[in-house]
Amino acid sequence: MNLHHALPLALGLLLASTGVCGQVRDTDAYVARMDASGDGRVSLDEYLTWMGYAFERMDRDGDGVLSADELPGGRGRPVTREQHRADLTAAFRRQDRNRDGWLDSRELAAPPQR
Predict the structure, then answer these.
(1) Which of 15, 30, 36, 81 could form a disulfide with 20 if both were Cys (CB 3.0 to 4.6 A apart)?
(2) In the 8-state DSSP scheme, what is residue 73?
(3) Residue 57 near residue 73, CB atoms below 8 Å
(4) What CA–CA distance (Å, rounded) separates 18 from 12?
């Protein structure tokens, strides 16, 4: 697994460890936290906003690039905000198994597709 595929997972773990996810005990609760519109499903924009939060927290110097010292483990190639958003978009599309443009709790709970 390369860094760009591992970064969404690492950022998700960062969210969990910082308390941003709160005490989410099941996938429905996780969807509810991500679902800013309250319609019971997660749009690409909601997904990018939720997952992008960790990028912003990790980007300590605010330059829009996660340098090696800002990455989990303190090593790796730099990752731009644009690269990160592209990787998250690809992850969202892989999770959207029915291709309707939204993620529901079942899709979020499923293992990621390659």
Answers:
(1) 15
(2) G
(3) no
(4) 10
Amino acid letter, 38: G
Residue 101 in contact with residue 44, Cβ under 8 Å?
Answer: yes
Note whether 51 and 110 are within 8 A (CB). Answer: no
- pLDDT tens per residue, range 21-48: 444 567 888 889 999 999 999 999 999 9
Q: What gap in Å lies between CA 73 and CA 48, rounded to an integer?
A: 23
Using the structure block, give the residue that is written with the tokens 């939204």: 102
Give the dihedral of Cα atoms 111, 57, 23, 38; nearest 10 deg.
-80
pTM: 0.73
